């Protein structure tokens, strides 16, 4: 049932009265009287009501139409236009919903009425030539596209500007010419048969939103348009059909917009179905438990497999209080009801929860991350709660265990470094005093056994001093964020040469080779570099065969100096290379050949190199031996 048709039936007298008032304010000269037109408009309203209700719009009064054929055409069309405006004003004032099909039926009824008026005017033959002039003026000014196609040749007798725009032709190109010479592209689109059928049968043809290909694009390119039109037969004075009145309206924008809307709706529905299926699949495969509790009772409408495994039972169809009675008293039901009543989401992190593995079993503590999200219906009220829950019990326990072990390790490390710092600092003073006393004693005239004993004692004390120094450096590097250096201009070649000569004097049985080239000038910490070279030379002598040479190379390059210390012998195992520069580690397993290493030498070497902005690498193999390579930038 059409609401618009009901309103038109109820308000028809009001519409006709308002129409009469407008006519009296702006009377049209000549033509039919207001009473005659009012009778005609009353019938037009009845036809419109029938059309809106899906009935035949022509009705029983169609047969009486010929008796009114002498009505002035311009006055009738103006009356139709005024009535149309009053109807649309009523629709807007009442806020009536008007569908696209109702608007189309209204347009079709008015178009048919105009076509009938034109047919009556053409067939009456009783109007003067000035009436035909007014008819031509009406065609020209009409808001619709109008044309008259006459005779078996289908010659375009009249085409108003609206029709010429639809065709994409000028008046000179169209008027007075056969239609298919003007619009050849339409002949193969069934229009020739439609027009000749109207001429032959006298039955009008009405098309709604018909797709048409018209050559009105650039360079005559075909364009697709959609048109609603009427082919109305016209009779001559003797009643013979000899022409067709065409009244058309282009509805391309409306049709395309509706098609777009329909396509978007279809795609939206398909996307919604796909999204729902995807969400269902994801929810079922997710590591997160998903449940939806609906209504004031918070009854489970859905719960994925993860959720049901977590709670150990089937919950769908039951209120939360009945499905999970062990939650009563743990605050969850209160929190969920607050979400449902207030619409404020609720989130919990690592919340301790007692859950029964199965109905009737003793609850066990679980740690849960959860979120309660309100879900609103289309009218805005809260329909239910979407619950997401993740069991983090094991993750939390593993994290807590890792934190405990880390804290214990940190405490042990801090204690070790604190102890090393105290011991090394407290030992340095007494050792320095002992070393000084030994040096004084060795200057005196002593017997050979005493001198030999003092020399061994001095060597052991010097070794202890070096160990204390390494421990102090280790403590500074670990607790102080790295070794501190003091750069001064120096020649690194001279320093390295001095260190090699010193080790040659203390190891006369070994062969030490020195190769140097390029510029050795730069800014470094001389004491730290001496410590670096001494540690590398000491390692090379200690871990190489007694009859093999140790080679030291120094090369001055652009912006840096490179040092290499090479020795033969057993290579460093590959598994030891990764930890070679770690503290308290040694290059090889087994006893220390010299019996004095605590595994800090290479760690301190790397710290010295880093403090100078350089890097150190090591390569070790049986054929090539072992080579420590150091790169030292010349300074800032």
Looking at this protein, list some descriptive labels.
single chain; 19 helices; 17 strands; alpha+beta; five-stranded antiparallel sheet; about 625 residues
Q: Characterize the largest beta sheet: strand count, sense, and whether it forms a barrel.
A: 5 strands, antiparallel
Mean pLDDT: 80
Oligomer: single chain
Number of strands: 17
Specify the number of helices.
Answer: 19
Q: Spans of 5+ residues with little confidence (pLDDT < 50)?
A: 61-71
Principal-axis shape equals elongated
SS strand fraction: 15-25%
> How much helix, percentage-wise, in residues?
40-55%
> Termini separation (Å)?
93 Å
Order of strands in the sheet with the most strands? 2-1-5-4-3
Secondary-structure-based class equals alpha+beta
Rg from Cα: 53 Å
List the topology elements.
Layout: H1 3-25, H2 34-52, H3 73-94, H4 100-124, H5 129-141, E1 145-150, E2 155-159, H6 161-167, H7 171-174, H8 179-182, H9 184-201, E3 205-215, E4 222-235, E5 241-250, H10 252-285, E6 289-294, E7 299-303, H11 305-311, H12 320-323, H13 332-342, E8 346-355, E9 364-376, E10 382-391, H14 393-442, H15 448-479, E11 488-491, H16 492-506, E12 512-517, E13 521-524, H17 526-542, E14 550-557, E15 560-567, H18 574-577, H19 601-611, E16 615-621, E17 625-633
Parallel strand pairs: 12-14
Antiparallel strand pairs: 1-2, 1-5, 3-4, 4-5, 6-7, 6-10, 8-9, 9-10, 11-13, 14-15, 15-17, 16-17
Helix pairs in contact: 1-2, 1-3, 2-4, 3-4, 14-15, 15-19, 16-17, 17-19
């Amino acid at each position: 049932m059409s609401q618009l048709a009901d309103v038109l039936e109820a308000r028809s007298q009001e519409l006709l009265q308002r129409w009469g008032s407008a006519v009296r304010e702006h009377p049209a000269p000549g033509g039919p009287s207001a009473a005659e037109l009012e009778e005609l408009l009353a019938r037009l309203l009845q036809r419109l009501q029938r059309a809106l209700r899906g009935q035949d719009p022509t009705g029983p009064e169609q047969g009486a139409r010929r008796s009114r054929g002498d009505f002035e055409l311009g006055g009738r069309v103006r009356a139709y236009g005024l009535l149309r405006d009053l109807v649309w004003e009523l629709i807007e004032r009442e806020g009536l919903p008007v569908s696209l099909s109702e608007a189309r039926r209204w347009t079709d009824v008015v178009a048919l009425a105009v076509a009938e008026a034109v047919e009556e005017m053409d067939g009456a033959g009783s109007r003067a030539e000035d009436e035909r002039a007014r008819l031509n003026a009406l065609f020209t000014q009409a808001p619709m596209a109008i044309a008259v196609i006459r005779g078996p040749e289908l010659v375009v007798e009249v085409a108003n500007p609206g029709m010429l725009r639809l065709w994409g032709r000028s008046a000179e190109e169209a008027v007075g010419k056969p239609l298919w010479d003007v619009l050849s592209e339409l002949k193969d689109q069934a229009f020739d048969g439609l027009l000749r059928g109207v001429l032959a049968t006298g039955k009008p043809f009405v098309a709604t939103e018909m797709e048409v290909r018209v050559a009105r694009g650039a360079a005559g390119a075909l364009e697709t348009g959609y048109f609603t039109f009427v082919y109305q037969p016209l009779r001559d004075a003797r009643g013979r059909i000899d022409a067709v009145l065409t009244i058309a309206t282009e509805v391309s924008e409306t049709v395309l917009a509706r098609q777009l809307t329909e396509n978007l709706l279809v795609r939206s529905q398909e996307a919604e179905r796909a999204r729902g299926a995807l969400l269902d699949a994801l929810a079922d495969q997710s590591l997160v438990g998903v449940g939806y509790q609906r209504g004031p009772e918070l009854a489970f409408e859905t719960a994925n497999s993860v959720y049901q495994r977590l709670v150990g039972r089937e919950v769908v169809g039951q209120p939360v209080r009945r499905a999970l009675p062990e939650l009563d008293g743990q605050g969850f039901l209160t929190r969920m009801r607050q979400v449902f009543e207030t619409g404020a989401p609720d989130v919990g992190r690592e919340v301790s929860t007692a859950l029964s593995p199965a109905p009737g079993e003793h609850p066990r503590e679980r740690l849960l991350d959860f979120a309660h999200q309100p879900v609103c219906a289309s009218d805005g009220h809260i329909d239910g709660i979407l619950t997401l829950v993740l069991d983090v019990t094991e993750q939390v326990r593993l994290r807590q265990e890792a934190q405990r072990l880390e804290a214990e390790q940190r405490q042990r490390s801090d204690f070790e470094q604190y102890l090393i710092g105290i011991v090394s600092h407290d030992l340095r003073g007494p050792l320095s005093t002992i070393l000084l006393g030994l040096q004084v004693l060795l200057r005196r005239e002593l017997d050979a056994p005493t001198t030999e004993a003092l020399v061994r004692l001095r060597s052991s004390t010097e070794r202890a001093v070096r160990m204390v120094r390494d421990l102090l450096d280790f403590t500074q590097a670990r607790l102080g964020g790295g070794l501190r250096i003091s750069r001064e201009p120096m020649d690194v070649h001279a320093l390295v040469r001095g260190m090699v000569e010193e080790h040659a004097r203390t190891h006369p049985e070994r062969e030490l080779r020195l190769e140097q080239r390029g510029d050795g000038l730069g800014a470094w910490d001389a004491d730290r570099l001496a410590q670096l070279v001494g540690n590398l030379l000491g390692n090379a002598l200690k871990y190489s065969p007694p009859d093999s040479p140790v080679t030291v190379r120094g090369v001055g390059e652009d912006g840096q100096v490179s040092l290499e210390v090479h020795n033969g012998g057993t290579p460093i195992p590959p598994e030891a290379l990764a930890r070679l520069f770690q503290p308290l580690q040694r290059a090889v397993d087994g006893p220390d050949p010299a019996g004095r290493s605590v595994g800090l030498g290479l760690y301190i070497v790397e710290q010295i190199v880093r403090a100078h902005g350089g890097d150190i690498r090591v390569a070790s193999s049986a054929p090539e031996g072992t080579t420590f390579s150091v790169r030292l930038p010349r300074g800032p």
